[in-house]
Automatic annotation (TrEMBL):
Organism: Gossypium raimondii (Peruvian cotton)
Protein name as annotated: Uncharacterized protein
Gene3D superfamilies, per the entry: Glycosidases, Immunoglobulins
GO CC annotations on file: cytoplasm
Organism lineage: Eukaryota, Viridiplantae, Streptophyta, Embryophyta, Tracheophyta
GO biological process terms on file: starch metabolic process
Transmembrane region(s): 69-89, 95-121
Domain of life per record: Eukaryota
Amino acid sequence: MYLDKDGKDREMNSRMGTRSGVKDSIPAWIKFSVQAPGEIPYSGIYYDPPEEEKYVFKHPHTKRPKSHAGMSSILCISLFPCMNCYSSLLSDCLPVLICCYLLSCHIFCTVSSNILYDMFLQDFENEKKSRSFLY
């Protein structure tokens, strides 16, 4: 049902034919539904008020944050449940993360330098072999 311009209720039916039979449902554009006294199914009410009767929000929506920095740490999870704060994040978590980052960078540099060195030696050995055939 919907409210007419006169303010009278008008019923809106939405019927779907399926394999199991015909089903009545509330249309998707209905934003409000009511249950009549003594009846089990709900009835959808569609009401599109004039512009002067529509509600206007006083304040705009708040903007979503660009990012979120979580405030959890391994200490809080494993030892005891606690609420972490920014100062403990700075003093406890960031040094561990920086250490892990530096360690991973060191390992990466070591491995990549070894790979490059091995490639250089392999190229050098190949050049040596190819030169020996020329002379």
